[in-house]
Every structure is written in C-alpha cells, then in structure tokens.
Amino acid sequence: MAQRVFIHIGLPKTATTYLQTIMWGARDQLRAEGVLLPGAERRDHLWASRVIRAEGELASHAHERARTSWQRLRDEIAAWSGTAIISHEFFAAASAEQAAGMIAELAPAEVHIIATAREPLGLFAASWQESIKNRDTTRIEDYSREVSDSPSAIWNWRTLDLRLVLERWSATVAREHVHVLPLPGKGAPREEIWHRFAGVLGLDSHAYDLSGNFPNESLGVVEAETLRRINEHMGDFNKAFERGVYIRTFLADERLVPRKGERFWPSAERIEDCRERGRAAAAYVVEQGFDLIGSAEDLLVPEDLPERRHPDTVTDAEVADVAVELVARIMQDVRDARQERRRLLDKLSRQDVELARLRPVAKPLGWAAKVVRGLRRTTA
C-alpha cells in the first residue's frame, strides 16, 4: 500500500483542470519522483468520484470501466509503495459518511486532503456559468439559494462553500493533513497555484512543463444569458456526453466564449452572502489549524469591486444579436461538415471501385496462398 495518499477534492472552478492537465501530461515524471497518478485516464478519477458519491445514474447504465473505477484505483495504490494522488473536484460533494468511507478504504495509508479554494464571489459567478454550460436554465438570482443535501449536487453551495466542504472531509483526518490552497490574489502569476500544489506533494514544481495552453473559458454576460435561454429548448439533451459535446464544447466554449463578452456580478444581496461565506471559511480554516498554503485574505471577497452588469439587464435585442451570429456560424459549420462528408463518401466510392477491380485477381491469389500454406505444413 502507498505510504501517503493525497485526495484533491476541488473545489470546482479553482484551477482544478489546470492542475490535472499538468499532472496527466507528466505521469511518467511524477512516477519517477515517487508519486503515482493511478488510472488509465483522467475520467477514471471522475468515475471514482461518482462511485464514492453513489450516484444512481452510474449504477443504472454506466459501462464496466466506470463502475469498477474506484476499485481499479485502489488496486494500483495498494501495489505502490510511495505517494499517490487522486484528483477530481466532484469529490467535494461527498457526504461526511462517504468521505470517511473513502478514507477508511485507503488504510493503512496516511491520507491527506487537498482543497484548492478561491474567494466566494468569483467562485459563485464561475459556478453559475458552468451550470449554464451544462444545460441549466436557472437565473443567477435563483441559483443555489439553498444548500443541497444531495451528494449528486455539484453546482451548489454544497461544493462551493469551503467551510461546509471541509467540515465533511476533515472529520477523520489529522488537522495538519488537511491542506488548504487559496488561489493567489489578483496580479499573481497563474503558475503560483501549481507551485503550491506541487510543494504539498513534495515535488520540484519548477521541473514541470507549464507551457500548455489553458484558455480562459468564461462566458460574457450577454453570451451567458443567450445560452441560458437556448437551454430552455434543449430538453432532449439529457445525457452527460451530449451536454458535454454539444452544449458545453460546441456552443459555449467554441462559439460563445471567443466573443469575450462583458463580465458580470449577481445582485448586492448575493454579493453580501458571498462575503459572509468567505469570512466564515477563512475563520474556520484558521481556527481548525489546517495547513494553509497562502493567505487567508485570498478567501475573502474584495471590499472594492469593479462595476459590472447583472445578467437580468441583458435585453432581448442583445440576445437576438448573439443568436443571429450563432446561427450564421452554425450554418457555416453544417456546410463544412457536409462537404467533408461528401469528400469522404467520394473517397470510399473510389476505394470500392478499386476493390471491385482487384477482386477477380485476388480470388486466384487466395487459392495460391492456400497451396503455399499447405506446402509449408507438409515440409515442416
């Protein structure tokens, strides 16, 4: 069994994709430094988080690799003698019982919890638009009004409120083994969160390739409202795969995000709620004596905020302008896809003609091959 296992539980929208991309691109390098990143692909960690959280959807129709993901990760960790790291932000939604159960199943390894975090207002705005990318239709003022009791609720204060997440995950772990990593404040280099994260794992953070492309995937206020309204007509896109491919990637990330629209805030009431949650989380981290890598100040909503629009101020005319451009772009995509399909069909047709021409020759050659194989057997 591995001597130490680090469980990176998120939170969502706290540079988790950035950190995971670096690690999955350097698995051999990690292993050479004594750190195991188990699994065949990063989806194994996503699936494992769903197994731990006992998601009904996983049990009902997921394939065997998804259902056995957690057991496969455990088996790899059991066969490793150094350090192991498991990372997915959806672990943050686990109940206290589920978290304790996962930690117990890793015994006798010394288990550490890593929580990457950020100030709640930016996290709240990022989370709302992430929910929109996943076909949600909720207005920002109605978003996450209550804390969900369900471990399946990802885009909710259940996973966004650092204090609530740490209360569930720290119950059976030594205080010094709970590592809280706030995202560095404004103006800090993006790489700083990696240096903090790698330092917890005992890695030489400067030895890793950080030159990859990690684009900002934020929606502007008009683009977010447009997608929210489109989602109201996307009821047939029920599967996670379809939402990911067609709504998140095709519509949001590839066509709406590049417009680089205006950023936004929720109402003053929601901003104040975020302030209170930030103050409570910062105080809790300090009081509990967790290993804080960075400043507790970075867990607080800044006092001075720039002026930004509210999504409810977006007009029908603004939505129409974005929608018209989107339809024009999709028409171009349809045209290009059909042209490519026609090119491939023409290529296949030419290959069929060539195969038909060669078939009369291939048949006698097939008999010759059989004769040769027979001669080889008799002379063997």
How would you describe this structure to a colleague?
54% of the residues lie in helices and 7% in strands. With 380 residues, the chain is an alpha/beta fold. It folds into two domains: 252 residues, P-loop containing nucleotide triphosphate hydrolases (Rossmann fold, 3-Layer(aba) Sandwich); 61 residues. Strands 2-3-1-4-5-6 form a six-stranded parallel sheet, sandwiched between helices. Helix 3 packs across helix 6, helix 12 runs antiparallel to helix 13 and helix 12 packs across helix 15. The longest helix has 64 residues. The relative contact order is 0.12.
Key terms:
about 5% strand, about 375 residues, six-stranded parallel sheet, alpha/beta, 2 domains, Rossmann fold
Number of strands: 6
Number of helices: 15
Q: How many structural units, i.e. domains?
A: 2
Give the name of the CATH architecture of the largest domain.
Answer: 3-Layer(aba) Sandwich
Instruction: List low-confidence stretches.
Output: none
Which range does the strand content fall in? 5-15%
Short précis:
The chain is of the alpha/beta class. The chain contains 15 helices and 6 strands.
Write the layout of secondary structure elements.
Blueprint: E1 4-8, H1 16-24, H2 27-32, E2 35-36, H3 43-52, H4 56-61, H5 64-67, H6 69-78, E3 83-87, H7 96-105, E4 110-117, H8 120-133, H9 157-160, H10 162-169, E5 178-182, H11 192-201, H12 221-231, H13 240-256, H14 268-288, E6 291-292, H15 316-379
Parallel strand pairs: 1-3, 1-4, 2-3, 4-5, 5-6
Helix pairs in contact: 3-6, 12-13, 12-15
